[in-house]
Amino acid sequence: RRLGYQFPHWSLHDLRRTARTNFSDLTAPHIAEIMLGHKLPGVWQVYDKSDYLEEQRKAYQTWWERVESIVTCTS
């Protein structure tokens, strides 16, 4: 709205939900949660101190390739 564009029945949170759904197709659920900035639940975060950077990198790369193919119509 700040930019003057309005899409009925749509919010920025819809993009976050779409990203999370797609991340689930690309990697393990706990990594998808970390990619959204969520903490691991319960004692999991106490015992698991990994940042899963390589797993995140792979998932982000695959996601970027998917988005790029849609935007450039190369799929």
UniProtKB/TrEMBL annotation:
Signal peptide interval: none
This protein's record includes keyword Cell cycle: no
GO terms (BP aspect): DNA integration
Keywords, comma-separated and alphabetical: DNA integration
Keyword 4Fe-4S: no
One function term, GO molecular function aspect: DNA binding
InterPro entries: DNA_brk_join_enz (IPR011010), Phage_Integrase (IPR050808)
Sequence similarity: Belongs to the 'phage' integrase family.
Name of the protein this chain belongs to: Integrase
Organism expressing this protein natively: Candidatus Ignatzschineria merdigallinarum
